[in-house]
Amino acid sequence: MIKIKSKSIVSIVIFLGIVLTLSIMGYKILSNGIYSQSMSFGKIQVQGFYLRLNNKFILHIDTLNLTALQSTDTTSQEDDEDDAPMSADEILGWVKRFLLVLSYFEKLDIEQIVFADNLPRSVHYDGKEYFINFPKLIARFAIEENDKATELHITQLDILPFGLQMQGRLFYRGARKAIEADVSISPKESTDDKEQPTLYVRAVTDFSKIALEASSSHLYDLDALKPFILKLKNQTLNDWLFKKVHYDVLKLHSLRFKSTLDKHFFEKLQKTLELDLAIESPKIYLAENLKPIEATRVILYIRNESLRFLLKEPFFTDINLEGSEVAINNIFTQPLGVKVSVLSQNAHINDALSNLLQVFGVNLPLRSADSALQVKLDIDIQNEKDQTRVWLNGGISAAHTTFKIGNQNLETEQLQLIFAQDKTKAYMQILSTKIDYAKSIQGTLNLLWNMQNDKLQGNFIIDKFVLTSQSFSEKVNVPKIPKGSDELTKRIIKAIYEESQKGFSEAILKIDKNKMKKINIVGDMGKQKVITLPDFGLIIRIGEESIFELSDIAKIYAYSPILQYFGISQGTLKVQSKDFDTIYLNGNVHNLTYPLYDKNGKILSALSLEGRINEHGIFIGTNERKFALIKEGNVVKIILNGYDLHIDEVFSSQIPVLKQINQENESGEKLSPKEREEREAFIRAKRRYERENKLSPHITYLEARNIDFHLGGYVIPADNASFSLRDDMIRADVVYGNGVANVDMAYSRADVRLSNFSDKFLNRVWQSDIFDGGLFNFKGVYDEGTLKGEISMQNTTYKNLVIVQNILALIDTVPALLTFRKPGLGANGYEIKKGKVDFVLNDQYLVLDNINLIGSSIDVEGGGLVNLKNRELDVVLKASTLKTLADIVDKIPLVGYVILGDDGKFSTGIVMKGTLDDPKSEVSVFKDILTSPFEMVGRILKPVDNLLNGLVEAIGADVGGRAEGFDMLNSPALEKDNELSSLPKEQANLPSANSKNEDVNDENVVNEPNLPQQE
Q1: Which of 165, 393, 457, 862 is most buried per CB count within 10 Å?
Q2: What is the DSSP letter of 242?
Q3: Omega into 335 within 30° of 0, i.e. cis?
């Protein structure tokens, strides 16, 4: 028994001795170190292996090649990919084993770890700190253990693909089997920001669940978060965070989530994610090429998978949007929804807001001139089946505001603009909104736009409807009477106002609300966008250009005073504009009855017109440039080219514009000389007031080229003619060849001047070759229905005139008168070197007050009377010629028929009776005819003494009261001749025979009516 025990003890001692010996030998070997240049452990190949034992092991490996093992692990991983993942206990077990193994090493260096990619990798441990250098990861950390926890101090952790670095601590709580992290993450490279962007993260995980909370320093961009957000693969979210939101600086106050470390990680993260982020001076771009919504600060937070932007002091351009916000729903799933809430108490519709609404399908052609709109709009953007659907809900309201359409103002009261859209309905509605356009169109507007079928319907309830042309053209303001104005100023302003109510101030449309209570509105707002006013046959097309088409003018003729005024009852009209600053129009008018004819004698019954209306005025004309109408301010110019005017038809026309001229002409105001002088002084003061206050004067011009005037069966030709009307005064200038005619007319009185007219002009007027050669002038005054004037002529020959032919026949029948048969009076007519005829003409008589003709051989003096009603003549003439003594001896039969005067002239008397068509001539040798023919003329004119005396009083007495007497017929202004050829083609303003008029020549007005010629 004792022997057996002894053997056992010996065996143990021997074993222990062997172990001790081996240990001593191993220690001795390890103390000296083991080195192998190359060795392998299965598929693991090691080069430069060195192991030495000091207090703990020291291991150094030059190269650890795991390439073969990596391929085996890959195959094994493919085989086991369906296996369940390791549990937290298994993970922690491996961590403990790893730490236990590392605890036996004093120093560990693996200079190169080789994988299949041959990228450099290394691991180092110096007994205190671990250093790991991998291609995508560089880490430096230390591990401390105590009874409660194992602590990992991360000195450096660089995540190279993301350019990030991490610092902090990790704690392993053995009791709870959990790891806690408290780290900071920042860009590896320093930035130029005032503060290095840093993300602070605290997390707890038991390798089954994880809870994380993060905050940040001040960030100047989101690049640090971008890699993680991109992993969500939500392009819309990426666009909002990285493209649509710009800012100066932001700070992440809190980011929290809880999830599980399994395949449901992202799903649970999305449901629990909460975010609080402050952004300074943000700019939110709702769409490209639009101005952003700006604010002093935005609080961005995520709750329940919704991202919201709460704005502090937000504004869009100059619109305050306090209370507005942007919300993005379903940020992690599809369909993602965006909701923009726009609130404002002082909004106005400007170009930027209109462009914003246009992105969402709302096209507003108007702008607001003030900031009186209250806006509450919700814009919902839903992505469904690769389509973006936009819903607009809410409204725009205002107690009173002003909109602008182009340069036009539209006043509104009680504005209610409502938007409503969802899956079942979509409409825009204007409810009971009061409209006031230029104090001309007033009423209540109701509209409903069904955006599902694009149908539009509504009405405009009329309170007042009077639309004038000034609403579309240059704003012409009628001055108001200032307080404390003198009587003259009050009279001037009143006169200006009265002028503004005439002519082109007639209303374009005028509707009596008692006859038409409302205007119906229908339309289709689809691709074509068409609005129709069926009551007027008006079609409005809305697009890049707004187009107004009137298919039948007859439908609005009854409501259009201006069309009635100008007698335009049939035709079509098309108006179009992009911005209503400039309006273009073209049309065709038919059934015209103006007394205008073409050169073939065909009445001008139709016109094709085109033109434009803008802030400068109205410009309308024909394509062939034969007609043009221009209205700038209060100045109206009408241009005609190649038409003939029938003056008789002007006086009988029933077209209101012509009828008005006739009425004013018939009821022309008759003024006494004193009243006329006062009126002229008032007109000068009025024109001076218009100049000083830069008021557009009311002037109407008519310019005509290549025109013939038809009057009473006569044709009066003209190369160019111009007529102007201002202050109830008319100025007319006519040019034919070198001849110039000027007429100034006012208060039923006219000054008429004709200079340098040729025989061709007179022969064309009389439609017969009566004159051959010569020049003719005329000056006269028309007053009280009577024309008194003087005709002068030179170097002409009377031919084919019945009276001259009758006198020649008389000479041929009386032998004693053959002495008057001279080359200047014969078969070729009566030659005149110069002559003058003074006459008075009214609707009953032509009074030949003085006939004084000096011929090449025969002189004629005399006068007489022509009764225009029965065309009877009563004319006395004295014909004289100079004879030699030899002639007298040969002509003894002259005694009793011819008298030799003291001046050496042979004279005879001729008395003409009968009618203009059948004159009767006879020779008379009464002494009073031959010696004093004008006394005889005086007796002939006895029946019209009252007419002549009245004319003298009307004309002569008019100027007799002046400081200096003035005879209209002998005025130097009337004596002045003008030698003019013709007007330039570009300009129809004609020169006047009397251009001096210092009181009334405005710098900006050419050739306006003169005041009556009086001194």
Answers
A1: 862
A2: I
A3: yes
Q: Is there a contact between 777 and 977 (Cβ–Cβ < 8 Å)?
A: yes
| C-alpha atoms less than 13 angstroms from C-alpha of 203 in its C-beta half-sphere | 23
- Closest-CA residue to 56 (of 88, 86, 85, 27): 27
Separation CA 982–CA 718 (nearest Å): 10
Cα–Cα separations (whole angstroms), residue 975 to 43, 381, 753, 818, 972: 134, 86, 9, 38, 5
Q: Is residue 117 helix, strand or coil?
A: coil
Minimal CA–CA distance to 676: which of 959, 972, 949?
959
DSSP track, 833-867: EEEEEEEEE-SSEEEEEEEEEEESS-EEEEEEEEE
Enter the tokens of residue 990.
């004609």
506: its two tokens: 């007639």
Chain centre distance of CA 429: 27
Among 356, 433, 997, 408, which Cα is nearest to 727's? 997
Run of H or E residues at 27? helix 2-32
Place of tokens 């100066």: 248
Report the greatest alpha carbon distance in the chain.
221
Instruction: Tell me how far apart the alpha carbons of residues 511 and 502 are, in angstroms, rounded to a whole number.
Output: 19
Q: What residues have CB less than 8 Å from 974, skipping those under 6 apart?
A: 751, 753, 779, 968, 993, 994, 1013
More confident residue, 925 or 230: 230
d(CA 685, CA 489): 9
Quote the pLDDT of residue 443.
Answer: 92
Q: Which two tokens stand for residue 442?
A: 């007033």
pLDDT tens digit sequence for 240-250: 777 787 888 88
**Rounded to the nearest 5 degrees, what angle is found at the Cα of 993, between the Cα atoms of 988 and 997?**
95
Three-state secondary-structure class, residue 992: coil
User: 816: helix, coil or strand?
Assistant: helix
- CA–CA separation, 146 and 151 (whole Å): 8
Contacts 24+ apart (CB under 8 A), 931-938: 933/861, 933/862, 933/863, 933/876, 933/877, 933/878, 933/909, 934/850, 934/861, 934/862, 934/863, 936/876, 937/848, 937/849, 937/862, 937/863, 937/864, 937/876
Task: Please write the tens of the pLDDT for every residue from 335-381.
Answer: 677 888 888 888 777 777 777 777 666 666 667 777 678 888 888 87
Nearest to 292 by CA among 236, 352, 250, 343: 352
Q: Are 794 and 773 in contact (CB under 8 A)?
A: no
Cα Rg of the chain (Å, integer) = 56
Residues 832, 660: Cα–Cα separation, whole Å: 45
Residue length, the chain? Answer: 1015
Which tokens hold the place of 300?
């961005």
Predicted confidence (pLDDT) per residue in 381-390, tens digit: 777 666 777 7
| DSSP, res 950 | H
Extract the tokens encoding 466: 């009077």
d(CA 249, CA 222): 10
Phi, psi of 898, rounded to the nearest 5 degrees: -130, 140
Give tens-digit pLDDT for 254-283: 889 899 888 888 888 888 888 888 888 888
Instruction: Specify the residue for token string 């936009």.
Output: 390
Higher pLDDT, 587 or 669: 587
Q: Residue 806, Cβ neighbours under 10 Å: how many?
A: 16
Per-residue pLDDT tens for 96-125? Answer: 676 677 777 788 888 888 888 888 888 888
- 705's tokens: 């080229």
Rounded-to-integer distance, Cα 967 and Cα 960, Å: 9
Q: Which residues 6+ apart lie within 8 Å of 917 measured at CB?
A: 802, 871
Partners of 900 in the β-ladder: 906
User: Of 658, 660, 638, which Cα lies nearest the Cα of 648?
Assistant: 658
> Tokens 């006086």 sit at which residue?
651
Find how far residue 166's CA is from the centre of its chain: 61
- What's the rounded Cα separation, in Å, for the pair 666 and 660? 10
* SS3 state of residue 447: strand
